[in-house]
Amino acid sequence: MEKANDIILIGGSAGSYTLIIDMIEALPEVFSPAIIIVIHRNPKFTTKIEDTLSARLKKKIVQAEDKATILKGEIYFAAPGYHLLIEPDKTFSLDLSERVRFSRPSIDVLFETAAEVYLDHCTAFLLSGANQDGTDGVKQLQQMGSKVIVQSPTEALISTMPRHAIEANGHVEIYSNRQIISYFRNLK
């Protein structure tokens, strides 16, 4: 398997799960970028989100593991209870440091570390959520030349997260749910 030269990040919280499923479902059979997803999950509850989605969507979906190489065309979820970081050698690192904006895993942590490594070979989507996680990460991604797409707050089930990122970061691309799904459907 080949290391991913391009990545797509997806950050979501409350209200984002259904759209994330639609995004993965829209993917073509073969695509090049690695897709890395942070969704706020409570580590106290065992979930089999990766196994459930793999079976339902007929795509290989795994939990990111510490020191694992980020591979082309793979779909990863951040483990509940750990921050997910991208290392300079394009591997994952799991971290138990303090929560960021009440969250671990934090969208900001993933976005900020990915921006430093992947620069303009990174596209990030920030979706529905009830806190402000992702806002600082969006700023870092923009500064490093990454493309940032924020879900339209009018279509987000909970608009706090996308609305705050838009207000705090000035120019970001705002996509409707239909545009987001179309992006994934046309991925190569």
From TrEMBL:
An example Gene Ontology CC term for this record: cytoplasm
A GO molecular-function annotation: protein-glutamate methylesterase activity
Keyword Coiled coil included in the entry's annotation: no
EC number(s) on file: 3.1.1.61
Active site residues per record: S13, H40, D133
Chain ranges of the CheB-type methylesterase domain: 1-180
Pfam families: CheB_methylest
InterPro entries: CheB_C (IPR035909), Sig_transdc_resp-reg_Me-estase (IPR000673)
Keywords assigned by UniProt, alphabetized: Chemotaxis, Hydrolase
Sequence intervals crossing the membrane: none
Swiss-Prot/TrEMBL catalytic activity: [protein]-L-glutamate 5-O-methyl ester + H2O = L-glutamyl-[protein] + methanol + H(+)
Any GO BP annotation: chemotaxis
Full protein name: protein-glutamate methylesterase
Native organism: Sphingobacterium phlebotomi
Taxonomic lineage: Bacteria, Pseudomonadati, Bacteroidota, Sphingobacteriia, Sphingobacteriales
